[in-house]
Amino acid sequence: MSKVVKCLCEECHYNNNHECHADGIEVRSSGDLQVKTSDGTSCHTFKAKS
Fold this sequence. Notes:
Helices cover 0% and strands 20% of the residues. It is an all-beta fold and 50 residues long. The N and C termini lie far apart (29 Å).
């Protein structure tokens, strides 16, 4: 499995200096249409910084 390294979501708990430190990530489509670009996806691993 590939390692996720880059994270540009500064509000995410797992983002440490633009590196993702989650054990794994889950990406889903963000709508009910067929996804054709990354704009149609969302990260369900996101956890807001406290």
